[in-house]
């Protein structure tokens, strides 16, 4: 009779560990989703700002059609990207195109002095800082989640519950492109 109680006690403990592990992993997964949604909000604000910036630059540097087209293409690509890996790659291309667009202001003193351009550039700079902070928060949440599914006792149950590894929002292979300063030649 006492062996039956011991077996029942062990089963209850295992079930309690499974419930606790599942609830913790759900909470961590929700944190990752919320962090990605925060990035998405910041990126949408940046996407909304870009057409105004392009129109302002177009008025002063209309013959820079290639740069303006690159920014619009990169924006459209970024708006349709899905998931952290695609969004990260598309946003890195957009950041590079925006860097080239902002660099144009150095060649056009009238553009650089334009109050509308200055305000848009300031808003863009502020958004870039917010996006960087959101990326750090997201990557921290992903790190905690990935660690959570690999630690015992959750590792015993994570696969059964469908919890899989999440990807970081990283610069990846395009890091050299983002770190390269754009050259402006006329």
From TrEMBL:
Topology of this chain in the membrane: Single-pass membrane protein
Subcellular location: Membrane
Family, per entry: Belongs to the LemA family.
Superkingdom, taxonomy of origin: Bacteria
Species classification: Bacteria, Pseudomonadati, Pseudomonadota, Alphaproteobacteria, Hyphomicrobiales
Name the UniProt record assigns to this protein: LemA family protein
Organism of derivation: Bradyrhizobium retamae
Transmembrane helix as UniProt keyword: yes
Keyword Transmembrane helix part of the UniProt annotation: yes
Membrane-spanning parts: 6-25
SUPFAM superfamilies: LemA-like (SSF140478)
One Gene Ontology term, aspect cellular component: membrane
Protein keywords: Membrane, Transmembrane, Transmembrane helix
